[in-house]
Design a protein that fits this description.
Number of strands: 14
Order of helices and strands: HHHEEEEEEEEEEEEEEH
Strand order of the largest sheet: 1-2-3-13-5-11-8-9
Distance between the termini: 22 Å
Shape: globular
Helix content: 10-25%
Number of helices: 4
Amino acid sequence: MRRSEVNALLHSAMAMMDRHGFQLPPWARWSPQQWRENPDRARRCVARQIGWDVTDFGSGRFAERGLLLLCLRNGRPGAPGERPYAEKIMVVNPGQETPWHCHRIKMEDIIVRGGGNLVIELAYAADGALLDDGPIEVVIDEATTRAAVATPLVLRPGSSITLPQGLMHRFYGAPDTGPVMVGEVSVVNDDLTDNDFLGGLGRFSAIEEDEPIRYPLWQDLKIERTS
């Protein structure tokens, strides 16, 4: 991905959240200079993977396969006195896929906070392939639901689904609705080690620095803090 694309995506995401009345923490709009002026805050966020994150999962096609998210709060796995939970807000565009993956440790709720509809598909996997071994039982809006493998489930604004550890899932914005503002509430999140993607896809994107950083990603804070 190019830095110019990342900058534009973050600016657009902030505008969407403003339209929906989702209030961001002040640091979400900080420039690189403001982060440099707050090194303790930068160190804390980097250690907990708190901050902006934009990825195309190595596809080079963000509009088709990508995700923009902001980790608002998180702890450090196993660290005494740390939060045992995490919270994220994400933007998912119509037809934009977050590909098949699961988490070994993280249990999470995916919540449609506003905008369009979110489509999610579920499956279990073994030996790098999805299993077709009968319906999957999950909780949607506090009701137990049985769904066939890889069947599209539509979540409308206000709806949520609980995803247990080990359950493969992929999601995308419904093609006939607008961008979706999606929340995530989970146990402590570790995107460095707790994502198993079908087909061995990467979680993070390499960024081509074609213009200055406008709003740092959390991965950038290490660089900004030491520059």
